[in-house]
Design brief:
The complex is a heterodimer. Chain A is mainly alpha-helical. Chain A folds into 3 domains: 1-254, no CATH class; 281-534, no CATH class; 577-625. Chain A has 27 helices and 4 strands. A two-stranded antiparallel ribbon of chain A has the order 1-2. Chain A has a two-stranded antiparallel sheet with strand order 3-4. In chain A, helix 13 (282-305) packs across helix 24. The longest helix of chain A has 32 residues, at 166-197. Chain A is globular. Chain B is an all-alpha fold. Chain B has a domain at 29-89: Orthogonal Bundle (Helix Hairpins). The longest helix of chain B is centred in the last third of the chain and has 31 residues, at 59-89. Chain B is elongated and about 50 Å long. Chain B starts with 5 loop residues before the first helix and ends in a 13-residue tail after the last helix. The model of chain B has no long low-confidence stretch (mean pLDDT 89). The chains are: A mainly alpha, B mainly alpha. The A-B interface holds A 602-607, 610-611, 614 and B 21, 24-25, 28, 94-95, 97-102.
Chain lengths: 627, 102
């Protein structure tokens, strides 16, 4: 089989499986349906590894493979093909999507085993994987937008998967509407690009943009800002971050796949993919860095005050994507993508492990009602511990350390970086360590508060163990210059992304590494002091106003409710009674009135009818006779 | 032979027709309503006979035979229906049989 066919098969297999499950899901047994759903993604993952190996072994001259499958749209000078382009950036993404996706699908077979919507779940998950693969493989912006909306749809469907609970439906709508705000900005940005360059092809646009548009030209800045809007919505960054914590209403595998590992990083992909535009708009790039820094701090503080295990992880995801945005903003693209990959491993692991904990404790989400689970479920404890260690960047042994350290280092050393961004990052790193181990100490240590009802099967624990291994060894493919100086990952990614330009401070790198290592370790130690030993002031803080403010995510929801939702509802109420509505309503009133009037005549009385006959005949006769 | 002017003959048929119509409107018993319809039929038949006699044409008499046949059929069906109605509603008062609406 030629390589191009294999690339086309990677998104086609999950699509095929989606179609099978949708049309024949009712006839299939759960076992078969589950293995079709997971197997298709598994085969895609194998194909991806095969394509990846051949890509790395013999790098194509254009640094990308392209496959045109068919022409999708053609009108005037508008052409859009169903065409894929695979370069090193897409390669990393499809690897994470298919491989982590496969593990999550396998886990889901165990996790959803007793759910009545079993085949529906796998159908949606497959559709999601297919859309996400289209998003990252598309060679033109229109096809990418198709994938972009496809993942949005699947996110909506899966957040509201347990639709019988009205709150879940509300969370799904919230996610859909808030990301839509960003998407509207993004599609306008795409239109501007088409108007300016007459093509949707991403590579062509990037080439044309760098020659036709001047740096800081207004069009470049506007377009970059609009695309950034789309990225902010999808990746739950300030000010559109409020949907992600509520999105935890979906099943845990959904949170792991969509709201941690893949979809929410689509914004990161978009910015990395269109990096030429952003380099033409340095102001926007600075804004990205600032938004990233602010988001990671706000989400970090919020995570510290949550009670719900999954909400902690949700805020943590927002915060970690904040790191990726920070890296994108300072031009350290490979560091952002590296953190994306490592984050996908450990955050998927944490969500899946949290899913097991919640499942065996009978849907108990509150960490303060858990405790002492370390002895009860050792496999989950150890994998969760590894995931948390990686999240809080435990020095040297975890992948999270290498990826986060790279971002922190570039935040200081990059030409557009500085001490302020680095400080934000380092405070965020401290918070990350603190809230990660707060989770560990409260959930897994102390006395048992809720007894587990059963123990998780192999289908659930094996993916956890594989992800735990990846969360540790995933970091060793990219070692900093000061230790090891091994750049396998960035060498690969830099085939399609520009390298970060750094100031002449390289000799200081080890100092910064030492500081971040110390900060992470201090965070973990303080978490032990605060949440294991439980001193009195922590108890007092838990009841303070500040804690409540953090818990509510800095009150963004409340502000949006007052500023946007309430006025719009108020306007809609007024609008309901305006003159045009009155006009429309009066037409229907007239019809109803006429109905009442005429239906008097139909009273079922035979003699009444006869009389009207007689009157009618008399009337006609009179007319005829007097003519 | 005494000849009645044709206008008087038509007037007689008209009076008969209106008697039938008034009976139909005023009576509430279904049997009497059916009888009123018969009267109206016969007045119409009478007009045919008058016309046949007036122009010395047999067509009108032929037509009357037809009308007679149709009336017989109508009475047969009508009485059968009335029987069923009585069976169902236990009354023949047409004002109480007003279920044929909505």
């Amino acid at each position: 089989m030629p390589l191009t066919t294999i690339i086309a098969l990677i998104p086609a297999l999950p699509l095929l499986s989606f179609l099978i499950l949708v049309f024949f899901g009712g006839q299939l047994s759960r076992k078969i349906a589950g293995w079709i759903g997971a197997g298709s993604v598994g085969v895609s993952a194998l194909l991806t590894i095969f394509v990846g190996i051949s890509f790395i072994n013999s790098l194509p001259e254009t640094k990308s493979y392209s496959v045109v499958i068919w022409q999708w749209l053609h009108a005037g000078n508008l052409t859009a093909n169903i065409a894929f382009s695979l370069d090193s950036l897409s390669l990393v993404f499809i690897f994470v999507i298919t491989f982590v996706g496969f593990l999550i699908h396998v886990y889901s077979i165990g996790f959803m085993a007793k759910d009545e919507g079993f085949t529906r779940f796998f159908a949606y998950m497959n559709l999601f994987v297919c859309s996400m693969l289209i998003l990252v493989l598309a060679d033109n912006l229109l096809l990418m937008y198709l994938g972009w909306e496809g993942v949005g749809l699947c996110s909506y469907l899966l957040i509201g998967f347990w639709y019988k609970e009205p709150a879940n439906g509300a969370a799904a709508r919230k996610a859909f509407i808030i990301t839509r705000i960003g998407d509207a900005a993004m599609i306008i940005g795409i239109f501007i690009l088409f108007l300016s360059f007459g093509t949707f092809n991403i590579q062509d646009i990037m080439l044309l943009a760098s020659t036709k548009w001047a740096i800081c030209s207004s069009l470049a800045v506007i377009t970059a800002a609009l695309l950034l809007g789309g990225a902010l919505g999808k990746s739950a960054q300030l000010p559109l971050q409020t949907w992600l914590p509520d999105a935890m209403a979906g099943p845990s595998p959904v949170s792991a796949l969509i709201h941690a590992a893949t979809m929410v990083t689509a914004g990161v992909y978009l910015i990395a993919r269109t990096n030429v535009l952003f380099s033409l708009a340095p102001i926007v790039q600075t804004i990205i860095a600032i938004i990233g820094a602010l988001t990671l701090l706000i989400a970090g503080f919020s995570a510290l005050a949550q009670h719900d295990l999954k909400r902690i992880l949700a805020y943590s995801t927002i915060s970690q994507i904040g790191y990726m945005f920070l890296a994108l903003g300072i031009g350290a693209y490979s560091a952002a993508i590296f953190h994306f990959m490592v984050h996908a491993f450990f955050k998927a692991l944490l969500f899946l492990a949290a899913g097991v904990v919640i499942l065996v404790l009978n849907e108990e989400h509150d960490i303060f009602k858990m405790g002492g689970l370390r002895k009860k479920m050792p496999a989950v404890f150890w994998t969760f511990l590894i995931g948390s260690a990686s999240l809080s960047a435990l020095p040297l042994v975890t992948a999270g350390f290498y990826s986060k350290d790279a971002i922190l280092w570039f935040a200081f050393s990059s030409n557009s970086g500085g001490i302020v961004l680095w400080l934000a990052g380092i405070v965020g790193a401290f918070l990350t360590a603190l809230y990660s181990f707060r989770m560990i100490f409260i959930t897994f240590f102390g006395e048992v508060k809720t007894e587990p009802t059963f123990s998780a099967g192999k289908l659930m624990t094996v993916p956890l163990i594989i992800l735990a291994v990846l969360s540790v060894i995933g970091g060793f493919i990219e070692l900093p210059t000061s230790m090891g100086n091994f750049h396998l990952f960035s060498n690969l990614v830099n085939n399609s992304l520009p390298e970060v330009a750094i100031k002449n401070v390289e000799h200081l790198e080890w100092v910064f590494q030492l500081i971040s290592a110390l900060i992470a370790s201090t965070g973990i130690y303080l978490a032990y002091r605060f949440y294991f030993k439980k001193p009195a002031f922590i108890e007092a803080f838990n009841h303070s106003r500040l804690n409540h403010f953090f818990e509510k995510g800095f009150g963004f929801d409340k502000v949006y409710d007052v500023v946007f939702v309430k006025p719009i509802v108020w306007l809609a109420e007024i609008d309901k009674k305006d003159i045009f509505d009155q006009l429309n309503i009066s037409i229907s009133r007239l019809a109803i009135w006429g109905n009442h009037f005429l239906s008097i005549a139909q009273n079922g009385k035979l003699r009444w009818y006869l009389l009207s006959f007689a009157i009618g005949i008399a009337f006609i006769l009179t007319l005829m006779l007097t003519k | 032979m005494l000849t009645v002017p044709v206008e008087t003959q038509i007037l007689f048929a008209g009076i008969l027709f209106f008697l039938g119509l008034i009976g139909l409107l005023v009576r509430r018993n279904l049997v009497f309503m059916l009888m009123s319809i018969e009267i109206m039929f016969n007045s119409a038949g009478l007009v045919f006979i008058i016309a046949a006699r007036h122009w010395d044409q047999p067509d009108g008499q032929v037509m009357f035979i037809f009308i007679l046949a149709v009336t017989a059929v109508e009475v047969a069906i009508g009485l059968a229906l009335i029987l069923q109605v009585y069976h169902h509603f236990k009354t023949l008062d047409v004002d109480k049989i007003n279920k044929l609406k909505d």
